[in-house]
Amino acid sequence: MTEGAETFRAALVQMRSESAVEPNLDAAENAIRMAAEGGALYVQTPENTTLMVLKTRELFERTLVEQDNPAVERFSALAVELGIWLHIGSMAIKLSDIKVANRSFLFTPAGEIAARYDKIHMFDVDLPNGESYRESKNYQPGDKAVLADLPWGRLGLTTCYDLRFPALYRALAKAGAQFITVPSAFTRQTGEAHWHVLLRARAIETGTYILAAAQGGDHDMGRATFGHSIIISPWGEIVSEAGVDPDVIFADIDTARVADARARIPSLLHDRAYELPTGTDVVSIKEAS
Q1: For the chain, what percent of residues have pLDDT higher than 90?
Q2: pLDDT, tens digit, 9 for 90 and up, residues 137-170
Q3: Domain-embedded: residue 147
Q4: Catalytic sites, residue numbers
Q5: Which range marks the domain in which residue 94 is found?
Q6: 2 lies in some domain
């Protein structure tokens, strides 16, 4: 498969990142090489590719600003060597002494950064099993939706908890996205309940391919993630899926299927504006401008 064709091979890298950066970089590089050897021209890694920690002190001790971060240079060089579009699902990037960004990087085969995306929605949740997460404590949320043009079509970038905000996905699709990414580190509990149904819903609602590389398994710092990296077609079909352990999965992405799904159900053309009711008023609907 060559660039410029309607079909290209994508690969998702499933990881079990640790609380030390260097082993994660080695694991990511080895898996990315496997993906390229399997013919992938676009390769995605999960959220928190380079570091997974729970303690604030450890996060800031092991996080660097972008220009001083050797992982950025390493992944750039790897994209050049392998001749691939390399999407690092996210890395912690230091912004200040009190905040970091949960940032995705998309590298071109020339090693340039084609896009950066800072995760917009922060995972601030208390789960029924007692797990509690306050991502906003240490992370600065992004405020911009991001798209990038690949040789085969337009890519929309999202990360993990963004999945629960469908307006973002609809906006990306209306801006031309044919593929939307969801690199993630879903908890085991929320993944078992919602991972598949939410991802399939986003694909169906937008008529896009969904590409979601995930963290999976029991991590050394005590967290358990769901895994099940997955590629879903614009019609909502599961094209490829991993289990829980580290893995590389592949799928041949046919861009013609995007247009086909949107022609069959043209819901992106049918939005209407509405006013929410107050008191006992009924909802007022009008044509969207």
Answers
A1: 86
A2: 999 999 999 999 999 999 999 999 999 999 999 9
A3: yes
A4: 47, 119, 160
A5: 7-287
A6: no
